[in-house]
Design brief:
Layout: E1 4-6, E2 12-14, H1 16-47, H2 52-79, H3 88-105, H4 114-140, H5 142-146, H6 150-182, H7 190-218, H8 233-241, H9 247-277, H10 283-299, H11 301-311, H12 313-328, H13 339-375, H14 380-409, H15 423-433, H16 435-449, H17 455-471
Antiparallel strand pairs: 1-2
Helix pairs in contact: 1-4, 1-6, 1-7, 1-9, 2-4, 2-14, 3-4, 3-7, 6-7, 6-10, 6-11, 6-13, 9-13, 9-14, 9-15, 9-16, 10-13, 11-12, 12-13, 12-16, 13-17, 14-15
């Protein structure tokens, strides 16, 4: 299959089969990720009646354990020698376990006692996140393999995030609608809602498997595994931690962790905010709000791409992240019945959220090549493994923070007949939705401002890599 063609100025252009074939794979990861980010804690606390603190702690442990496997998966994919390439075999064989583990996550039993709740959540969650890692690390690290030029990578990332946000729309708009549709009655109890979640998870699992198999069919890898020294734990850890000697990567990764905490808090808490603060508990309301934000984010991907052509990725993302922060402030004053104001704020947040989807992951392949230009060694799997490790730590911390904050504030399960929450819980919810994420966005921007890998500097790196390839 032809990976690219030539245009008049001599720069290669990725074929549509590669763009779409690669992009559709993120439908699987985004469908799993978005559903878990928006609904997993809500499902565990509102449907299974687990303690928020137990759920938050269990998910943090799952994320930390899962994060330890990310660098191993990156190293393994870099060393893999297979006729299909280094990355695609994991997508082919890992797709089915990913779909199955996602179903099991929403088929967890309702158990009593903090120890049993923690055990069930930890075991099932760890299995799912491990399956996610086996597919996600090789998939994300393919970006540097499929595209060389910064504009190509932004284009590839943009198409990838079209499918990513399409999956987010399916999850945000469709999850609760499907749950209610699969439930046995029109006004389902929590037990019947649990049945609806199981059928919805089964459907989503099938879609994940199919999308990853389409990526296997639509792409071909250009690079094979380089000859490397035999694997040794001590050498590997030193090699793995060496990524932090890459100054642009270090700045980008710290920024991304702060921003990931902010966006995870937004996604985790918003359903509680709708149900308890704004008195909007229906599935139609949640679908409208969550779907509206993701649709706006999808529509704004191309405008942000054009902005980055003029201002550069870093400057464009500074604007985008600050846009999110300012758009979130009015949520503090929203009251029940102000649905129009809520939708306006969701549209504004969606515009900025689009930049979060596009820019950090399109900047990562550029920093990977800083080390390649210096040493001649291509280690994109290791970099992507560390990237996802840090992302999972950040998400786990956000879930832990939100779970314990709700518990300490006095969150009461609906199992006990509560349709409202104590005033302290309502205040905590809005703090977790507005001011805490804003603080993390601003902290991240301190490091984003110091990120200094310009387009001109990256062109110099690419030229050095070309000379290395020519000499070899």
């Amino acid at each position: 299959m032809t990976q690219s063609s030539k245009i008049n100025d001599g720069h290669p252009v990725l074929s549509w089969r590669v763009l779409v074939g690669y992009g559709v794979g993120d439908f699987a990861h985004s469908l799993a990720f978005t559903t878990n980010a928006l609904f997993l804690m809500f499902f565990a606390t509102e449907i299974l009646h687990y303690s928020p603190a137990v759920v938050g702690t269990a998910l943090l442990c799952c994320k930390l354990l899962d994060a330890l496997t990310d660098p191993l998966m990156g190293e393994l994919s870099d060393r893999t020698q297979h006729p299909m390439g280094r990355k695609r075999p994991y997508l082919l064989w890992g797709a089915l376990p990913l779909g199955l583990s996602f179903f099991l996550l929403y088929a967890m039993p309702r158990v009593e006692g903090a120890i049993w709740q923690f055990a069930v959540m930890s075991v099932v969650g760890s299995f799912h996140f491990l399956c996610y890692t086996v597919c996600n690390i090789p998939y994300t690290s393919m970006t540097a393999d499929l595209a060389d030029e910064p504009k190509q990578r932004t284009q590839l990332t943009g198409v990838r995030y079209v499918f990513s946000i399409l999956a987010s729309i399916v999850s945000a708009v469709g999850t609760m609608q499907l749950v209610v549709a699969f439930a046995p009655s029109a006004n389902p109890s929590s037990t019947e809602m649990a049945q609806g979640f199981r059928w919805t998870a089964a459907l989503f699992g099938v879609l994940m498997v199919l999308s990853l198999w389409l990526t296997v069919w639509g792409t071909r890898e250009r690079y094979r595994a380089q000859k490397r020294s035999p694997f040794a734990w001590s050498v590997w850890w030193r090699s793995y931690l060496r990524v932090f000697q890459n100054h642009p990567f270090r700045q980008l990764a710290i920024m991304y962790m702060f921003h990931t905490v902010a966006m995870t808090l937004l996604g985790t808490v918003i359903l509680y905010f709708l149900k308890y603060n704004l008195m909007m508990p229906s599935s139609d309301d949640s679908s409208l709000v969550l779907g509206g934000m993701t649709i706006v984010a999808l529509l704004c991907l191309y405008p942000w791409y054009k902005v980055s052509e003029r201002w550069g990725k870093r400057n464009s993302y500074i604007v985008g992240s600050m846009w999110i922060a300012f758009a979130m402030i009015p949520l503090w004053w929203l009251q029940p019945g102000q649905k129009t104001s809520l939708l306006l704020q969701i549209v504004l947040i969606g515009i900025g959220f689009s930049s979060f989807n596009l820019f950090p992951n399109s900047m990562l392949p550029d920093v990977v090549e800083v080390e390649q230009a210096e040493t001649g060694e291509r280690r994109e799997g290791t970099y992507y493994g560390m990237w996802v490790l840090l992302e999972k730590i950040a998400r786990g911390f956000a879930l832990f923070l939100s779970g314990w904050a709700l518990q300490w504030a006095g969150f009461v399960s609906v199992k006990q007949g509560q349709t409202t929450q104590p005033p302290d819980v309502l205040v905590t919810i809005v703090w977790l939705l507005v001011w805490v994420p804003i603080a993390f966005l601003l902290l991240g921007n301190v490091f984003l401002y110091r990120f200094n890998l310009t387009a001109e500097r990256h062109r110099e790196l690419r030229e050095a890599i070309r000379q290395q390839n020519d000499n070899s």
